Amino acid sequence: MKKLVKVGAVELCVETFGEAEAAPVLLIHGAAASMDFWEDAFCERLAAGPRFVIRYDHRDTGQSTHDPAGAPSYSGHDLVADAIGILDALGIEKAHIVGVSMGGGLAQRLVLDHPERVRTVTFVSTSPGGPGGPSNPDLPPMSEALQAAFSEEAEPTDWSDREAALQALIDAERLFAGSLPYDEPARRALYAKMVDRTADLAAAMTNHWILDGGEPIRHRLGEIAVPALVMHGTEDPLFPIGHGEALAREVPGARLVPLPGAGHEQPEQVWDVMITAILELTDDAGEGLTGEG
To answer: What is the DSSP string of 23-59?
Structure first.
């Protein structure tokens, strides 16, 4: 059941799967992504572990508090605080954290700034330092095809036009896909669900991209002292797999799990690998867990 949870001055829409007595796993998705992108079947399979799985709508997505498009009143640090606030609201002292893309960046900050709240951390399709460039010359740049797509002039999407919005979302997602078969009917159905439950689609598609992300933290990754997992698509065009390899090197003891054929995405074809790896890492009876059991 979805419910609105009060976190400071905002309300965040949260949904849980599984029994509250099981090990808690907080799922944090990427920019402009509502909880819907942690698909129901994925969450149910993880909950069968057994795990207590928590997913939520970021600010400006789904049914959570939203600001006007182009004028977010919060920063990336606030999104980290939101995750902590959800744990507080659910009475969870310490959780396993799984973050995808921007959510992986939030997970890095969360485990560094609030290590006492984290049992293990999993980073998926993310980077230790963002796109390759002068500040991170060792990290590979995004693919030439993606660079070309970003440089093209395009007509702005009318987010109030449901069909135009759905097509724009599908077209954009295809740019980030790898070589695994793309199930357009299933993805269109997922996007339709997301669009229909989003309070302000223009805000959802705009505000996360213009946030102040805060100071770089790559130099602090060696401080992470909980068991860590890095999963990364072998054909990620936004953050080529060199980003995942660097992250795994820089986080002490982190294990790298490639997702063959996946791009900047988590398609159902790699769920077996992902779920198995997450369940292994988050097994509170396992030998690798530090801190509270």
So the answer is: EEEEEE--TT--GGGS-HHHHHHHHTTTEEEEEEPPT
pLDDT (tens digit per residue) in 40-49: 999 999 999 9
Round to whole Å and give the CA distance between 24 and 117.
11
Domains in the chain (CATH in brackets) are 2-132+142-281 (3.40.50.1820)
End-to-end distance of the chain based on CA atoms, in angstroms? Answer: 27
Spell out the residues 6+ positions from residue 58 whose beta carbon is closer than 8 angstroms to its own.
12, 29, 33, 34, 64, 79, 82, 208
Element housing 196 (H / E): helix 184-196
Angle separating helix axes 144-151 and 162-175, nearest 10 degrees: 150
The dihedral built from the CA positions of residue 247, 96, 32 and 59, taken in this order, carries a sign that is negative
- Tokens describing residue 98: 């799984």
Return the pLDDT at 278: 98
**Mean pLDDT of the residues in the chain:** 95
**What would the two tokens of residue 195 be?**
């669009």
**In one letter, which amino acid is 231?**
M
For the segment 125-149, the average pLDDT, to the nearest whole number, is 91
Residue 123 · residue 30 · CB < 8 Å: no
